[in-house]
Structures are given as structure tokens and as C-alpha cells.
Design a protein that fits this description.
alpha/beta; Alkaline Phosphatase, subunit A; three-stranded antiparallel sheet; about 35% helix; about 10% strand
Length: about 425
């Protein structure tokens, strides 16, 4: 074959960040293939969804009772009541409501399974997507030297204390490019897109590239370059084998009915994550991105469409898990919010404070968390954006402690000691 390994990986969409699990994990995943999937979860699961582009917090978690909200947004504000031409806000309390496209989440709020957080974000002043995303995923605002993600640091710190770490699939990225939050020393599988995953010819080429002529070659001790090459070969082979086993998990029979997921990319990802959680193979952390939230122009319809997919997908995910939902927490986050005042193109620009949505697990939901400061100009950050009253690192630390039972050690978040988020768990 004239196709180089590097070129093939690039074409196939499985880059060097698609790391493999140890051989024991592969043997665990193929055991008892014909049996229905286990209905007993081995431990808590955390699913992190990143809305890339700076989602508009004020039109997701709507301060419908604040008159100034409507003054600042004459064209794109969500109306407090339904009209002939537009749906009204889904009211949660006397201050806040959800965008009407998130109506599927209201029953979960009423059942205390949904906990929105207002005015959450970074203390750093950047309005750059790239910087803000990097800082958030590393849990280190402004610390450019930090090159590990907060989720990977958790996986690595708990590896020696996790009995299943060498036998089960602890972490997976539901996309071909590993999110920064999962980058670090602990190996995480990045799943390529469906085109690659289900292409038998491509997977066969992977086998040929990584296995041809390697099985019977003697080891060349003392050859540094050869050792490095062997390490790359081993990682490649393990990755291919893990992807095969991952596909087998998705195809196995599952006891019980399935929820109806949206027929889009987000719905497919959430359904696959739910399948792996229901498989009982030890999935502890899953993460993926949803792009396209940078609404500078014509925000109304575009945001509505994306939120409809998000709300329906999350509701289906929790419904599909059934009793396992109490052991699975979803965190929806974005790098920053948008300007409080709409711009001249019926959109919004890069802002500061934003919001988060937490769902499932053992949350104390049914209320909006965080400190709301209002929309008067004197209360806004730089007189234009929502203030940040809850540092996102505080939320991360609370999620690790309250859901995964992990107390983050000193400097887990570099040069920062998280403060409790009262009443979240």
C-alpha cells in the first residue's frame, strides 16, 4: 500500500488524539456479546455538552419579569406570554423562564431534575472564542501554560483508586477531535463520525496498516526510534480494536423500550451515549461539542431551532435512561454569554456572564441557582454584559464532589480554591 499511516488517519477522521484503552478493556467489551446489556450501572456517569460559540444566556434562561430585558431587546426578546405570532416564555418562577423551544425540559424542572444556573462564567475579561474555550475546558482562566483538561485531570487523579479503570470504558468523546477538557495523560477514546465508524473498508484498511507484518517481527531493544514507532503502532492497533468493540456495544440488544430521540446529529450522539451507559461497561465521562452558537445576525429563528434540538434531545436522553438517570448528570455549558443589548442585525455580540444547565443525577433542581444582579446598566459588566457571580470552576468542583464524589485537591484548578455552590446537590 502506498497510503501512509498519517495520511490515512487524516482522511479517515481518526487523529492521533483518538487514544485507545488497554487490552483488558478490549477483552471486557467483547465478553458475552450475545447477552442483553446489563441494567445495573457500575457507578455515576457525567455527560458534558459544550455549546461552542457563546450561547445567548438571556434567551435561554429568560429574565421575563425584568422590564429592562424587553427595552434592551426590542426585536429578539422572548415574550412573557404567548401571542398569535409567537410562543411565550416557559415560566419557571417569578423571575426566570426557559426559551419556548426548551419546553421539553419543563417537566424535568418540575420534577427537580433540572437546575439552571444564572450569571455563571469566567473572571477573565476575554471575549475571544478560542481563549475563552481553552480557559474553560482547562479550568484555568488566563493560564496559557496549562495543557490538560479538567475532566482528564479528574480521570487521571482517580485512576489508581478506580478498580474498573483497566477493565472498563471510563471515558469517551463522541466526536473525532478530542475536546480539550478530555486531553491529558489519561487515555480517552475519540469516536470518529458515523461515515468512518460504519465503513467496513476503512476499518479493514486500519487493520492492514497496523497489523501487516508486525505480528512476527522481533523486538529491537535499544533502538529509540523503533521503540517510538512500536508505541505508535500499539496505540493505533488498540484504537482500532476499541472502535470495533464500541460498535458492537451499540448493536447489542437492550432490555426495555427506547425514548424517541431527535433525528439529527445531537440526537444520535445522545442516543449512543445512553446506549453505552445502559450497557454497564463503566462509562464514567462522556463529552461532545455542539457548534454554531455565535449569533451575531438574525438570532431569533436560528437560536430557536438549535434550542429545540437541544431540549428535545436532553429530555429524550433522561427519559431513555429511566432509573439510571438518577446516576447520570448532564452539564451543558458555553464559553461566555452575549451582550445584553441586541445589535443592529437582530443578533447579539460576544459578552461575559452566561448560564449553565444541569440535568439528572441527584441534583436539587426545580429552582434557578446563582446570584442574579439585574439588567440595570450599573449592574452590568462593563455596562454591557451580564456579570459573573458564579465562577464556572465552582460549578465544576461541585459537580466532581456532589456527583462523582471527588474532592478536588489543591491546585486541581491552578491557583484557585473553588467555593461551594450552595444547594446544588
Amino acid at each position: 500500500m502506498n497510503l501512509s499511516r498519517r495520511t490515512f488517519l487524516r482522511i479517515a477522521g481518526v487523529g492521533a488524539l483518538s487514544l485507545a484503552l488497554p487490552e483488558l478493556a478490549l477483552r471486557r467489551l467483547v465478553a458475552d456479546d450475545a447477552k442483553p446489556l446489563s441494567q445495573t450501572p457500575p457507578g455515576p456517569s457525567l455527560v458534558v455538552v459544550f455549546l461552542r460559540g457563546g450561547a445567548d444566556a438571556l434567551n435561554i434562561l429568560v429574565p421575563w419579569a425584568d422590564k429592562r430585558y424587553y427595552d434592551l431587546r426590542p426585536s429578539i426578546a422572548i415574550l412573557p406570554e404567548k401571542t398569535q405570532d409567537a410562543a411565550g416564555v416557559i415560566k419557571l418562577d417569578k423571575t426566570f423562564g426557559l426559551h419556548p423551544s426548551l419546553a421539553a425540559l419543563k417537566p424535568h424542572f418540575d420534577a427537580s431534575r433540572l437546575a439552571p444556573i444564572c450569571c455563571v462564567g469566567s473572571p477573565h475579561s476575554t471575549r475571544s472564542h478560542f481563549d475563552a474555550q481553552d480557559f474553560m475546558e482547562r479550568g484555568a482562566p488566563g493560564a496559557r501554560a496549562v495543557n490538560t483538561g479538567w475532566l482528564n485531570r479528574y480521570l487521571n487523579a482517580t485512576n489508581k483508586n478506580t478498580k474498573s479503570s483497566d477493565e472498563q470504558l471510563r471515558a469517551v468523546a463522541m466526536q473525532s477531535l478530542l475536546p480539550r477538557a478530555l486531553r491529558g495523560d489519561f487515555p480517552v477514546l475519540a469516536v470518529p463520525d458515523e461515515r468512518v465508524l460504519n465503513d467496513g473498508q476503512l476499518m479493514g484498511l486500519f487493520d492492514k496498516i497496523y497489523n501487516d507484518g508486525k505480528k512476527n517481527e522481533p523486538a529491537k531493544e535499544g533502538m529509540g526510534e523503533e521503540k517510538r514507532e512500536n508505541s505508535v503502532e500499539d496505540t493505533g492497533k488498540d484504537t482500532v480494536e476499541t472502535l470495533k468493540r464500541y460498535k458492537e456495544i451499540l448493536k447489542r440488544p437492550i432490555d426495555g423500550n427506547r425514548a424517541r430521540f431527535p433525528e439529527d446529529a445531537l440526537g444520535k450522539r445522545l442516543k449512543d451515549v445512553a446506549t453505552v451507559i445502559r450497557a454497564g461497561v463503566g462509562l464514567e465521562v462522556a463529552s461532545f461539542d455542539i457548534n454554531g452558537w455565535d449569533d451575531h445576525v438574525n438570532e431569533g429563528d436560528q437560536l430557536s431551532t438549535r434550542l429545540k434540538s437541544l431540549g428535545d434531545g436532553l429530555a429524550a436522553f433522561v427519559d431513555d435512561l429511566g432509573e439510571k438517570a438518577s446516576n447520570t448528570l448532564v452539564v451543558v455549558m458555553t464559553e461566555f454569554g452575549r451582550t445584553c443589548r441586541e445589535n443592529g442585525n437582530e443578533g447579539t455580540d460576544h459578552g461575559h456572564g452566561g448560564c449553565m444547565l444541569l440535568m439528572g443525577g441527584k441534583l436539587k433542581g426545580g429552582k434557578v441557582h446563582g446570584q442574579w444582579t439585574g439588567l440595570e446598566e450599573k449592574d452590568l459588566y462593563e455596562k454591557r454584559d451580564l456579570a459573573v457571580t458564579t465562577d464556572y470552576r465552582d460549578v465544576f468542583a461541585e459537580v466532581l464532589r456532589g456527583h462523582l464524589k471527588f474532592d478536588s485537591p489543591k491546585d486541581f484548578f491552578p491557583e484557585y480554591s473553588p467555593k461551594p455552590v450552595a444547594g446544588l446537590f
